[in-house]
Please model this.
Amino acid sequence: MSVSSIPQAQLDLGVKLRDPDFSSRIVWLSLIVLLLWPLAVATEFRPSIFWDPDNRKVTADFLASFWPLVYNAEFMIMVANETWRTVAMATAGVTLALVLAVPLSLVATRVLSLSALSGRMNRWPAALRWCVRAVLIVLRSIPELVWALVFVRVVGLGPTAGVLAIALTYGGMLGKVYAEILESGESHATHALMRNGSGRLQAFVYALLPSHAAELASYTVYRWECAIRSSVVLGFVGAGGLGQQLDNSMKMFNGGEVATLLLVFVFLVALADRASVWLRRALA
Amino acid sequence: MKQVPPHSPPSRGYSREAANPPYKLPPTLFDARCWACWLTAALLLLVIASFVSLKLDWTAFASMEAARSMYRFMAEFFPPDTSPQFLAKVGIAAWETLAMSALGTAIAAVLGLALAVPASRMSSQDPAWLRSPTRWLLNALRAIPELVWAALLLISAGLGPMAGTLALALHTSGVLGRLFSEAMENIPTGPGDALRTQGVGPLRVFAYATLPQVLPQLMSYTLYRWENNIRAAAVLGVVGAGGLGQLLSFNMGLFLMNKTATILGAMLLMVACVDALSFGLRRWLNR
Model:
């Protein structure tokens, strides 16, 4: 095809429209459908049950009961109490998580090893660091909901189980990420101090911490925001707070209360999100 | 009448003319204009208020009795139940969890893409009327956690993995929709503008200019969320939405601790495998 014929072809309205990528699109789409089919079978995915008349009536009734919202004084005071309890559970949990995470991350950080200054780390410190890291990973990979289920059995229903669950999971997360943050940056200042005879704690306080403080604080604030979200979820297994109220209202099919609680919850999450963004910007 | 001293110093540049600059006092510990001080004070107050108002059961943390009951509880876990029938059951539940997370993420990717298009401003001429309302919808979908969606959906979808799948899909579509729309607004506008000036309609501009540019990013966001969703799917069953979590809460409710231990082990193994796989994949992609 010569160059001069291209504008001609575009002006010609009778030109055939052709998708240059047609065959590849069809192949990929059919491959995806083929892959998703067994998944749909495994999850008993039958959207048709939403069109079942009985089911449709139950769903419509429940959704219709969302309006009007319940907002009498007694209920709202209770909601305010539970909201505060949710925030308090998250805050107390993150505080205890810090108590767990800070010492563990100090032990796990390779930058603060004295023996590693002269080449390889000694065998025992290396083994200790590896063990601490393994502990942190195990703490982190058990979801907080499972910890909460366990603690509800041991210490009974109530916020103690929720706080302990958040403390353990978030202790693992914070410890692992703190260790990674401390190892990520420049280590010259820290090593210079340690080579000149300062202790490891001194090197941490005067060299390692100042250069990473903003990042550490910002990650902690972000995790606090996540903890607020998960403390709502923990209420579903009996740890108190908004989640437990939501569970109760749902079990009683009280749509108005459910709607109010959901709105309060969305508002709380948005507020925590804003606060966290603002704090992290102030820290940066 | 005020007397003017004969050698009054000039009002400006006093310190500059002094032979030695005057000593600066160290900052006081608390200054009303110091933001950091107020922030620290507020944080301390929040922490103290939290601990005081929760009336935590401190004896549960640190008494011998609590340690003993914890020890007894942990001892009941052993030995884990490894009978073939039960292992097969756990295997099926694990497959169900995996399927829930994969299908939920796939639905979320489609739904997220469908919501991301109205939620983003495709060109500077695009009026984007629906941008704010769609973003509000995405925020609401995202703000409600999977578990709460699952509990809500149980009413119409019934007990079982379908409620869990849909719950994952709804929450994740909020997250992905927002990420997708940000990706679409941040691409170079050149290819789209070139098509638009030729009179190509918005649908084909999307298919031939926008989508090919953002597709790799969309894929990586989706895979990342899938990794998260496998973890979430493992616990969704606690409210009755299928998978390993349902088996866990069932056996724990009956105090069958040996079986509980097996399920917990399966959960840990699955999460560890996913972590290792994604770590390897990321390293391979970044190579």
